[in-house]
Amino acid sequence: MERERRILQRTVAVAAIVPVLAGLYGVLFGIDGLGGGTPVNVSADSHFRYLSGLLTGIGILFFTCVPGIEDKSRLFRFLTLVVVLGGLARLLGLYLTGVPSLTMLAALALELVVTPLLCLWQLRVARLARDAGQALQPGIGAAR
């Protein structure tokens, strides 16, 4: 159980780097950072930077789940919900406006596949930790 917990912690820490770096990049470079070479709408750039700040925050909050990850199920599920909702919005955009760049498709895979799988893994580790804790307490196993 402890080995699996440590591997999950490392995996989440590495995965959390992606939204933090992508978010900071978006905050610093704005919508121009995506390339394309077309004139930028100032309001669209402002909105892009705002959403990039939110992305940075999501990544930082995932980092806060790493220590004691087995006790962070509620926050982890909430963050997963936020990420999946964003991924569903991106998927709708794909349907409405066409296929985006490979980078955006990779982000979609992280949002709709990787993050939910990490959440399921976190829930498994939390359950294993809870069961191990109950096994150590006298009388609880007999009450079942």
UniProtKB/TrEMBL annotation:
<keyword id="KW-1133">Transmembrane helix</keyword>
<feature type="transmembrane region" description="Helical">
    <location>
        <begin position="12"/>
        <end position="31"/>
    </location>
</feature>
<keyword id="KW-0472">Membrane</keyword>
<feature type="transmembrane region" description="Helical">
    <location>
        <begin position="76"/>
        <end position="96"/>
    </location>
</feature>
<dbReference type="InterPro" id="IPR025597">
    <property type="entry name" value="DUF4345"/>
</dbReference>
<feature type="transmembrane region" description="Helical">
    <location>
        <begin position="51"/>
        <end position="69"/>
    </location>
</feature>
<dbReference type="Pfam" id="PF14248">
    <property type="entry name" value="DUF4345"/>
</dbReference>
<protein>
    <recommendedName>
        <fullName>DUF4345 domain-containing protein</fullName>
    </recommendedName>
</protein>
<keyword id="KW-0812">Transmembrane</keyword>
<feature type="transmembrane region" description="Helical">
    <location>
        <begin position="102"/>
        <end position="121"/>
    </location>
</feature>
